[in-house]
Specification:
This protein is mostly beta strands and about 210 residues long. It has 2 domains: about 10-80, no CATH class; about 95-210, no CATH class. The chain has strands at about 15, 20-25, 35-40, 45, 50-55, 55-60, 65, 70-80, 80-90, 95-100, 105-110, 115-120, 125-130, 135, 145-150, 155, 160-165, 170, 175-180, 180-185, 190, 205, 210. A hairpin with a 2-residue loop joins strand 8 (about 70-80) and strand 9.
């Protein structure tokens, strides 16, 4: 581990209140009780990709994280009023979350500003998220399971992929599943809101107990 003169690394926590604080190597965190807090006006620069981050990254309002990807492994990403338990890739440059196979997001109540893209299989989103943009399956080999306890406020874009529903799924008005692909309802219900809309996608619906 190289230590910049501008970065202070502590066994249990690291608070970054400086203009710039580079990180040059993997961080050895002690679970979610260890955290990095990027304060208002600070820039946390990830010079090398972090492969297995299991701590907590707290990004305050006005803070910046830049550089290389951070791969979370049961780590927590906290920003504004959102808190995500994450197994997946945080693309700090594009402010995006990538689920690229056997990856999960568990979202507590609140808006998370990162976009979400899905590739490969075994991916899952659960909890009570408010999405800032559409959830996008990248291609026909992408598979995503959702178990959401609040109405979905953005579209889920299939692009030929497969969406598995592990709990009753509700969309807000004018939001829906878009693009061709497969939807496995597994005996759960799907509600597409109260407004009329035209359906132009070619979808396979499996094990549906009801679509309204």
């Amino acid at each position: 581990m190289k230590q910049s003169s501008k970065a202070a690394i502590i066994a249990y926590s690291m608070s970054l209140l400086l203009v710039s604080a580079p990180c040059y190597a993997a961080l050895n965190m002690r679970g979610n009780s260890s955290f990095i807090r990027v304060g208002p006006g600070a820039n946390f620069v990830v010079d090398q990709a972090i492969p297995a981050f299991n701590g907590k990254l707290i990004k305050d309002s006005g803070a910046t994280v830049s550089g290389q990807d951070i791969t979370f492994a049961d780590g927590i990403l906290q920003h504004l009023n959102s808190k995500l338990l994450l197994n997946g890739i945080f693309d700090v440059t594009g402010a995006a979350l990538e689920l690229n196979g056997n990856k999960t997001i568990h979202a507590q109540n609140g808006l998370f500003v990162q976009s979400v893209s899905v590739s490969s299989t075994g991916n899952r989103i659960e909890g009570q998220p408010l999405f800032a943009s559409d959830v996008t399956l990248l291609n026909s080999s992408a598979q995503l399971t959702v178990a959401l306890q609040r109405a979905v406020n953005k579209n889920i874009v299939l692009n030929g992929g497969t969406l598995d529903i592990d709990d009753n799924l509700y969309f807000l008005d004018a939001k829906t599943i878009t693009g061709n692909g497969t939807v496995d309802l597994n005996g759960d219900r799907l509600s597409l809101g109260g407004k009329e809309f035209s359906w132009s996608s070619n979808n396979s619906w499996n094990k549906a107990s009801g679509i309204t």
